[in-house]
């Protein structure tokens, strides 16, 4: 198995097109053509994690946070970022990061938090728009089933909890083959009228090439009439944060104790309690303060995230509880998530969790 096979699968789970503009997910160091020996999974990629990979015989580290966010102009080892890159190259270890693209999928980082809290009816808190397109193609009536099946097989026609979705309109098309044409229907120089069906399907933008190749291969025409439309419909499975419900409501203090236990927390910073049960819970791994408005609109009783500043706690305005549990603490179970994702596809691969504690924040009590 080559590193590129692992990368291909990870990017099917969390496509790079889903990452935020500031991010640097993907293969950061290494040759994708190398054979995989062992894979080490971590939240962060530090020098100690690279040392752990060396000791364990791993030549691929899959981390959540990328070691490099912006361009490096020199490699002198003057800081930990440069030292990690130098050490990885020296020991032929590939570094791969799956960061905000994993944050932005249902089943990703925030979903892992929701799973730890046993939330049901999970949904994306802020679905992303601009990730979907619509394909319209005109097909001779006799070939409709084949073309439609090819589109579905390539990933078109999925909407929420449904797949094989399409809209089909009967009509007819006209065309006249010119000199040099090799028409599947009709004769050169003569106008042809053909009973056709207009097929319309929605698809994720990153699948466009695959869908077009399948459509063109299954279509009988030499020149296929089709057009593509960008749509602003939100993608219900892609976006920031997760909203869900507790199986049974809890009193506020009871829920905070439950949260502390389930997320292995030393401390929770939170706004004042409001004297009402906790039933609906919004979560976001890492710095999720930008989602507070979405949490309020979703009817959440509590919003659990990290990296809140002093004045930002006032924004709760008595509408819900803000609970800051810490950046590392909110994402600590991402390692287990990545382990499960990789092992699900590559059952026989040697995939290991790092034994290195990468949290840079310590608590004194």
Key attributes of the depicted protein:
Udp-n-acetylmuramoylalanyl-d-glutamate--2,6- Diaminopimelate Ligase, Chain: A, domain 1, Alpha-Beta Plaits, 3 domains, six-stranded mixed beta sheet, five-stranded mixed beta sheet, 11 helices, 27% helix
Extended strand count: 15
CATH superfamily of the largest domain: NIF3 (NGG1p interacting factor 3)-like
Beta-strand level of the residues, as a percent range?
A: 25-35%
Rg over CA atoms: 25 Å
Describe the structure.
This is GTP cyclohydrolase 1 type 2 homolog. Pfam families: DUF34_NIF3 (PF01784). The protein is of the alpha/beta class and 365 residues long. The chain folds into three domains: 3-101 and 333-353, NIF3 (NGG1p interacting factor 3)-like (Udp-n-acetylmuramoylalanyl-d-glutamate--2,6- Diaminopimelate Ligase, Chain: A, domain 1), CATH 3.40.1390.30; 109-126 and 239-325, Udp-n-acetylmuramoylalanyl-d-glutamate--2,6- Diaminopimelate Ligase, Chain: A, domain 1; 130-233, Alpha-Beta Plaits, CATH 3.30.70. It is 27% helix and 28% strand. The chain has eleven helices and 15 strands. The chain has helices at residues 3-13, 47-56, 80-90, 100-103, 109-116, 144-153, 208-218, 252-262, 292-297, 327-331, 334-345, and strands at residues 26-29, 39-42, 60-63, 94-97, 120-128, 132-140, 167-175, 192-204, 226-231, 235-250, 269-270, 278-287, 302-306, 321-324, 351-353. The strands form three sheets. It has a six-stranded mixed beta sheet. Strand 12, helix 9 (292-297) and strand 13 (302-306) form a beta-alpha-beta unit. Helix 6 (144-153) runs antiparallel to helix 7 (208-218). The protein is globular, with a radius of gyration of 25 Å. The model has no long low-confidence stretch (mean pLDDT 96).
């Amino acid at each position: 198995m080559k590193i590129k096979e692992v990368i291909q699968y990870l990017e099917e789970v969390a496509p790079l097109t889903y990452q935020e503009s500031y991010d640097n997910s993907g293969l950061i160091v290494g040759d994708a053509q190398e054979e995989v020996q062992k894979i080490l999974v971590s939240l962060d990629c530090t020098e100690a994690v690279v040392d752990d990979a060396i000791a364990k015989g791993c030549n691929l580290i899959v981390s959540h946070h990328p070691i490099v966010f912006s361009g490096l102009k020199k490699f002198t080892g003057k800081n930990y970022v440069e030292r990690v890159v130098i050490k990885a190259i020296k020991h032929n270890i590939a570094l791969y990061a799956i960061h905000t693209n994993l944050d932005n999928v249902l089943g990703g980082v925030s979903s892992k938090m929701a799973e730890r809290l046993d939330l049901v009816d999970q949904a994306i808190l802020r679905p992303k728009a601009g990730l979907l397109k619509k394909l319209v193609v005109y097909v001779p009536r006799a070939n409709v089933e084949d073309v439609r099946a090819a589109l579905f097989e390539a990933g078109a026609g999925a909407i929420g909890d449904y797949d094989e979705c399409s809209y089909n309109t009967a009509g007819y098309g006209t065309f006249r083959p010119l000199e040099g044409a090799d028409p599947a229907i009709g004769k050169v120089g003569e106008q042809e009228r053909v009973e056709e069906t207009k097929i319309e399907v929605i698809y994720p933008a990153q699948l466009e090439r695959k869908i077009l190749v399948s459509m063109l291969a299954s279509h009988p025409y030499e020149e296929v009439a089709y057009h593509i439309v960008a749509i602003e419909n939100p993608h219900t499975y892609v976006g920031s944060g997760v909203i869900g419900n507790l199986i049974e409501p809890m009193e506020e203090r009871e829920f905070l104790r439950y949260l502390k236990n389930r997320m292995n927390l030393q401390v929770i910073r939170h706004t004042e309690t409001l004297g009402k049960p906790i039933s609906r819970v919004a979560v976001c791994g890492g710095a999720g303060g930008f989602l507070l408005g979405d949490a309020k609109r979703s009817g959440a009783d509590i919003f659990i995230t990290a990296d809140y500043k002093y004045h930002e706690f006032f924004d709760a305005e008595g509408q819900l509880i803000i609970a800051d549990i810490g950046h590392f603490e909110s994402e600590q179970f991402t390692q287990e998530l990545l382990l499960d994702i990789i092992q699900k596809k590559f059952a026989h691969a040697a995939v290991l969790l790092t034994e290195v504690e990468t949290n840079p924040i310590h608590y004194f009590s």
